[in-house]
Design brief:
Elements (H helix, E strand, L loop, with lengths): L1 E5 L2 E3 L5 E8 L7 E7 L6 E7 L4 E4 L7 E6 L4 E6 L8 E8 L5 E2 L3 E5 L1
Parallel strand pairs: 2-11
Antiparallel strand pairs: 1-3, 3-8, 4-5, 4-9, 5-6, 7-8, 9-10, 9-11
């Protein structure tokens, strides 16, 4: 499985971005897709996760109400809609996928909020 992210960039405080992740390869059976973020010196943090079979989403408290994770099962695309961005959201955002947790990772896309 290969994951490719896009949509990162620089935005002012309060702005919005939409990240995309396209999965390719043998994607049958994938039940978990998620967005993580990482900043230098900090542990990788799960921002939002989607459990495909139950259509359930979960969010880290700091982004609830601001970020929305969604997917298109037909074309294996996942998005992270980010609103009301804050400087503390600055990070490299990585797409992850798996069966019960993350085992496949994308390369990441940088989001900078200033």
């Amino acid at each position: 499985v290969q994951l490719v992210e896009s949509g990162g960039g620089s935005v002012q405080t309060g702005g919005s971005l939409r990240l995309s992740c396209v999965a390719s390869g043998y994607t049958n059976g994938l039940n978990y897709m998620a967005w993580f973020r990482q900043t230098p010196g900090k542990e990788r943090e799960a921002v939002a996760a989607l459990y495909i079979d139950g259509d359930r989403a979960s969010y880290v408290p700091s982004v609830k109400g601001r970020f929305t994770i969604s997917q298109n099962k037909v074309n294996n695309t996942m998005w992270l809609h980010m609103n009301s961005l804050q400087p503390e959201d600055t990070a490299t955002y990585l797409c992850a996928a798996g069966y019960v947790g993350p085992i496949y990772w994308g390369q990441g896309t940088q989001v900078t909020v200033s």
